[in-house]
Each structure stands twice: as structure tokens, then as C-alpha cells.
Specification:
single chain; 432 residues; alpha/beta; Rossmann fold; GMP Synthetase, Chain A, domain 3; 2 domains; 4-stranded antiparallel β-sheet; 21 strands; globular; binds 5'-O-[hydroxy(phenylacetyl)phosphoryl]adenosine
């Protein structure tokens, strides 16, 4: 089943022709309307008209999350604010959000691309779709909501949280498709068990999971426990939100909507393209975005492009599951957290440059986070009320700012890895 068969099954020659036309028009627009891009292109001595073919893309500068943060909030918008009808944001490495905007046309495009992902995963207008992604600045809830409505499905905007209520809704409203993070789906399974609700009491058929890494093992667990076909879908706020790519029912890679996005895979150290099929960092250029076009955005996500055609008939290239990050961002309970963000909060609270380590465990289906912070003075746990008070104050502030509950433990000075040893800032004990 396709949502836009003429586009999803376009032959490669026609697709590449469309891509170059759309790329040129995007480049002209950003050069004319976004000073940041104009300066960068000028510094590299490249003009939009110099890009005459797709390989010329390599002549253009990359854009990074720091560039987005550095232009906070609206510096990268290519249209005046009066043409923007929606604003979303995602967390930034040191607390400044990446703010993204959409014109009315962008929302239409986004809805269609989300509808493609939902349709590829088996959702039709006969489905009852429960969206259990957060609605708000996060793009997951509203993005997939609009896609599901576009298809004509009956959409339940359940949002996230209150899992027992979600399970009751799922049972009573006869939900047939669950849309959320894979870790939230695991929590749904655990909650059903606690409530004594068997899978036979549900009407679920499809599960669409994304916004964080997961595995084939988790897929199997969710498919068995919920009686569904589980598919993966991928996206990021800076590019669109959900709808960049998604698996079809073959579940053999995520189809990229290449008529809207140009995807490169680079070696994050040399910044050169990797050999075909090799793993590297995804770099994405938007081809149709009006309010927030992106040129060669370094996603920091590691994945590879799959060779060959999918049995489903779609011609868009497929990417493998996201296999990691080139930075230290971790996704905890669906929230993206950067160690640098935690560090700057800690130094705001306590002064200095406290060394910390984020330890993540999964108990049942729930992520548990402990932030270890080096104390200024020798620790004497259980005795010192002042230190207990400090832990509590840090815990409250971090929980509040990050939006997820965390525990804080003071540890001996110099017991954590040196700050130069960045790899030691996160210890992730979950099996993702
Ligand atoms: O997570 C958009 C989204 C919402 C995608 C709902 C799918 C479903 P951000 O909050 O900006 O946007 O986070 C983007 O999340 O760079 C990846 O590191 C990670 N991510 C997203 N989808 C997947 C996935 C949304 N399927 C960041 N597998 C991305 C692994 C994913 N990681």
C-alpha cells in the first residue's frame, strides 16, 4: 500500500531530475533569505548556480546543531514570521533549544510524508490510531497526528503519560495502531500485565515506533506481547520531525522520502563520503522545506544506506536502523539529553566545573538515571546533612530542567573519568 505511489515509486532518473531542480531552488532561496547561508557560501566561494548536478552538493558547507543553536531562535528561518504557522523545538547540547518553523505548505508536506510512513506500516483510514507521543514542542505527537488524520484514520491524541489510562483507552476505544517510542510500548506491555489485561482483550494490529534507538530483539518482544506488526520510523526536528523515513511491512530498512530529502553518508572524522553501503554519519539536505530549509545537516546519527530494491516496489533508497551517535546525546525516557547540558546545569547550580557521569539502567521497561557528581569535599554518605541537601537540590533542578526524573549521588573527588575522557561521561547499561 502506498500513500503517493507516483512519488514513492518514481524511477531513479526522474527522481534525480526532480532532486536537482528542487535543490537549486532551495539553494537560491537560502542564499537570498538566510544571511547565515549566504555568508557561508561566500566564504567557500560557491554560488547556488555553481551547483549544476547532485555531486556538486559536496561543494557546499555542512550545517551543524551548533549553527542552529547559534542562530537561536529564528536566524535560520527563510521566510518572515508572518508566514510561519507552527513552531517546534528540540533540546540543544547546552540547553539552548533548536527552534524550527513550518509554513502552511510545510505542514501540508509534513502531513503527507507522515501519511507515507503510516501507510507503509499498514495504517489505513479504517484504523483507530492512538498517538502516545508527547504533543508539544516535540515533533512526534503533532507530526504523526496530522499524518494519521490526512489518511482519514480515527486519531486518538492520547499524548504520553498515565499508562494505565492509555491501556484502558486502547482496550475500550478498540485502538488498532499504537504510535509511540519503543520504550513507551514496553511500558504499555508491562502495565497491561500488571492490570491483568491479556492481549486478546485488545484490537491492536500495528505498532509504529521511533524517536529513539531500538533493536530486533525489542521488535520481537513487542510483536509477541501486543500481537502487532512493529515498524521503525525515523526523523529529526531540524529536518522535519517524523516522516523522514520509515519501514514498510517488509521491515527491511527504512524508506527515505528522497523526493524531499537528499541523504549523504559521511565519515565523521574525514567528512568524506563513505564507500557505498558502509556505516557513517547521515547528512541531510531538505529539498522542499520553505520556513526552515537545511543544507547538509550533520545529524550525528550513524547508519548506512542499503543496496538493492525493496520487494514492496518503492524506489526510495533505504537506510538501516540508526546504529548510534557521533556525539554523546542519549535518549532517556524519550527525552534527548546531552552530558554537556547536565554539566552546564551543574555548574550553574554549584559553580565551578563539576565532573559528572550519567548512569542509565533499565528496570523492567523503565529507564532509571543516576547522575554521579564529584563532591568538593570528601563524601560521608548518610552522615552529612549538608551533602544530602545538596544531592536533593541538584536532583530537583536537574529533574525540572531535563523533564525526566533523575537521581543524584555525590561521589569522591577525582573518582570519575577526567573531563578530557569524554567517552566516560555516559554509562548506558540498557540493551538497545
Ligand atoms: O525524535 C522525531 C521523531 C518523532 C521521529 C517521532 C520518529 C518518531 P528529535 O526530537 O529532534 O526528533 O530527535 C531526533 O532522535 O537525530 C535520532 O538520534 C533519534 N531518532 C529519531 N528516530 C529514531 C529511530 C524526533 N527510529 C533524534 N531510531 C535523531 C533511532 C531515532 N533513533
Amino acid at each position: 500500500m502506498y500513500w503517493e505511489p507516483d512519488k514513492e515509486c518514481l524511477n531513479r532518473d526522474e527522481l534525480e531530475q526532480l532532486q536537482i531542480e528542487r535543490l537549486q531552488s532551495t539553494l537560491n532561496r537560502v542564499y537570498a533569505h538566510v544571511p547565515f547561508y549566504r555568508k557561508k557560501f561566500d566564504a567557500m566561494g560557491v554560488l547556488p548556480e555553481d551547483v549544476g548536478s547532485l555531486p556538486d552538493l559536496a561543494r557546499l558547507p555542512f550545517t551543524t546543531k551548533d549553527d542552529v543553536r547559534g542562530n537561536y531562535p529564528y536566524g535560520l528561518f527563510a521566510v518572515p514570521l508572518r508566514d510561519v504557522v507552527r513552531i517546534h523545538a528540540s533540546s540543544g547540547a547546552t540547553g539552548t533549544a533548536a527552534v524550527v518553523g513550518y509554513t502552511r505548505n510545510d505542514i501540508k508536506t509534513w502531513s503527507n510524508l507522515a501519511a507515507r510512513v503510516l501507510t507503509a506500516a499498514g495504517v489505513t483510514k479504517d484504523d483507530v490510531v492512538q498517538i502516545s507521543f508527547g504533543y508539544g514542542l516535540f515533533t512526534g505527537g503533532l507530526g504523526l497526528h496530522y499524518g494519521a488524520e490526512r489518511i482519514g484514520a480515527s486519531v486518538i491524541p492520547a499524548s504520553s503519560g498515565n499508562t494505565a489510562r492509555q491501556v484502558k483507552i486502547m482496550k475500550d476505544f478498540k485502538t488498532t495502531a499504537l504510535v509511540c517510542t519503543p520504550s513507551y510500548a514496553l511500558l504499555v506491555v508491562e502495565t497491561m500485565r500488571k492490570m491483568g489485561i491479556p492481549v486478546s482483550a485488545l484490537s491492536l494490529r500495528h505498532g509504529l515506533f521511533g524517536a529513539e534507538p531500538w533493536s530486533e530483539e525489542i521488535r520481537k518482544e513487542l510483536q509477541d506481547a501486543l500481537g502487532i506488526t512493529a515498524t521503525d520510523n525515523y526523523g529529526l526536528s531540524e529536518i522535519l520531525g517524523p516522516g523522514v523515513s520509515g519501514e514498510c511491512l517488509e521491515r527491511d530498512g527504512l524508506h527515505i522520502s528522497e523526493d524531499h530529502f537528499l541523504v549523504e553518508v559521511i565519515d565523521p572524522d574525514t567528512l568524506r563520503p563513505v564507500a557505498p553501503g558502509q556505516k557513517g554519519e547521515l547528512v541531510i539536505t531538505t529539498l522542499t522545506k520553505e520556513a526552515f530549509p537545511m543544507i547538509r545537516y550533520r545529524t550525528r546519527d550513524l547508519a548506512c544506506l542499503l543496496e538493492g530494491q525493496c520487494r514492496c516496489g518503492r524506489t526510495g533508497r533505504r537506510m538501516c536502523r540508526v546504529k548510534g551517535r557521533t556525539d554523546e546525546m542519549v535518549i532517556i525516557k524519550g527525552v534527548k539529553v546531552y552530558p554537556s547540558q547536565v554539566e552546564s546545569l551543574l555548574s550553574e547550580i554549584g559553580g565551578g566545573e563539576p565532573r559528572c557521569q550519567i548512569v542509565i539502567d533499565r528496570k523492567g521497561a523503565v529507564d532509571e538515571v543516576t547522575v554521579l557528581v564529584e563532591a568538593d569535599e570528601p563524601t560521608s554518605r548518610g552522615k552529612d546533612r549538608r551533602q544530602g541537601g545538596m544531592e536533593e537540590a541538584l536532583r530537583k533542578r536537574l529533574t525540572n530542567e531535563l523533564g525526566i526524573s533523575v537521581d543524584v549521588k555525590l561521589v569522591e573527588k577525582n573518582s570519575l573519568p577526567r573531563s578530557g575522557d569524554k567517552a566516560g561521561r555516559v554509562v548506558d547499561n540498557r540493551r538497545l
